[in-house]
């Protein structure tokens, strides 16, 4: 017999509006936490509902967590039930949301934990697997819109945090084609080590796009944000080769039929694209896009979402950048308390 915990733990996903790969190369990225949450519920007793991939990740997170608790942890992890609102393997960081959600659910069961500890643990856990940057975890845990400055091997600098305008909506168009983020990261790391001039060109263009996007968000200028995201997508497509024929076909249809400009979210080809529109226009945009994509792209999904609000008190922005890849004045600074108590 199984007993469910009373409340599942929700964890937002994230959309990257500009600056893919820059969270570890060392420049600026802009992300927003998206209210398409992954909900994790711990279950007392055996649960036959665990997907094998979820079960494997849950076991790894449980063992990682128990190894870091002062008193250790129970030998047997609780079973979990997971409900994901966002399309999987789409560039919305659903895997990071699952890992953060598991850390939250397990620590809530064992005691209380500061979100700063969850952020650090989730970043370290994923870095050991794919050696990516930390903009995903930072955006998800911090909430709202975030401007980060990348570091390799440590969490990025949180250079800015702001609420995403409440009268804007995030329109996600999932192409139902899979991403290969791990393969992309390995390829870009090799190019970075070789000082590839084409990669350097992308970094410059993406960094400028992120700066432009951040000014647009804080200035609540939707047209400027659309232009910044368009610039970021163009760099991803034309310089980095991250787009595909399917994505470009969907993007062209969205622009022609709904007047919506879409940008790939997340490194690697395939997956989802994201656009931003006024809340008052969101229902009409969704209706037009659904009709336009139904014939040529019947598997496409179009969730429309709000941004998740900023967390009350997790981290504070640090404006003085520390050395690349090193701890110091440039790392994220947690508010007091960083562990189980």
Automatic annotation (TrEMBL):
GHMP kinase C-terminal domain boundaries: 220-292
GO molecular function, one term: ATP binding
A Gene Ontology cellular-component term: cytosol
GO terms, biological process: isopentenyl diphosphate biosynthetic process, mevalonate pathway
Family matches, as Pfam families: GHMP_kinases_C, GHMP_kinases_N
Pathway(s) it belongs to: Isoprenoid biosynthesis; isopentenyl diphosphate biosynthesis via mevalonate pathway; isopentenyl diphosphate from (R)-mevalonate: step 1/3
Highest taxon of source: Bacteria
Residues passing through the membrane, by range: none
Residues covered by the GHMP kinase N-terminal domain: 59-144
Coiled coil (residue ranges): none
Keywords in alphabetical order: ATP-binding, Cytoplasm, Kinase, Lipid biosynthesis, Lipid metabolism, Magnesium, Nucleotide-binding, Transferase
Protein name: Galactokinase
Lineage: Bacteria, Bacillati, Actinomycetota, Actinomycetes, Kitasatosporales
């Amino acid at each position: 017999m199984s007993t469910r915990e009373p409340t599942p733990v929700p964890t937002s996903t994230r959309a990257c509006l500009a600056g893919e790969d820059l969270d570890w190369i060392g420049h600026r990225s802009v992300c927003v936490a998206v209210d398409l949450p992954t909900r994790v519920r711990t279950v007392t007793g055996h649960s036959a509902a665990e997907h094998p991939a979820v079960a494997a990740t849950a076991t790894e997170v449980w063992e990682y967590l128990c190894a870091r608790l002062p008193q250790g942890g129970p030998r047997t992890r609780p079973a979990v039930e997971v409900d994901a609102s966002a399309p999987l393997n789409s560039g919305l960081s659903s895997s990071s949301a699952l890992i953060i959600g598991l850390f939250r659910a397990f620590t809530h069961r064992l005691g209380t934990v500061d979100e700063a500890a969850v952020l650090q643990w989730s970043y370290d856990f994923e870095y050991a697997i794919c050696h990516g940057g930390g903009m995903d975890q930072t955006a998800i845990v911090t909430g709202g819109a975030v401007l980060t400055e990348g570091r390799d091997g440590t969490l990025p600098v949180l250079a800015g945090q702001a609420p995403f305008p409440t009268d804007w909506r995030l329109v996600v168009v999932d192409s139902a084609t899979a991403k290969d983020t791990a393969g992309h990261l390995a390829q870009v790391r090799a190019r970075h080590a070789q000082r590839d001039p084409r990669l350097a060109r992308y970094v410059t263009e993406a960094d400028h796009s992120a700066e432009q996007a951040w000014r647009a968000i804080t200035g609540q200028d939707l047209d400027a944000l659309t232009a910044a995201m368009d610039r970021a997508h163009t760099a991803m497509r034309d310089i980095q080769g991250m787009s595909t024929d399917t994505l470009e076909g969907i993007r062209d249809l969205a622009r022609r039929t709904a007047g919506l400009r879409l940008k790939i979210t997340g490194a690697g080809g395939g997956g989802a694209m994201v656009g931003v529109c006024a809340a008052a226009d969101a229902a009409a945009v969704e209706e037009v896009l659904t009709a336009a994509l139904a014939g040529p792209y019947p598997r496409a999904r179009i969730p429309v979402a709000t941004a998740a609000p900023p967390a009350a008190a997790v981290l504070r922005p640090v404006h003085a950048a520390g050395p690349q890849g090193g701890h110091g004045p440039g790392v994220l600074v947690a508010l007091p308390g960083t562990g189980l108590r």
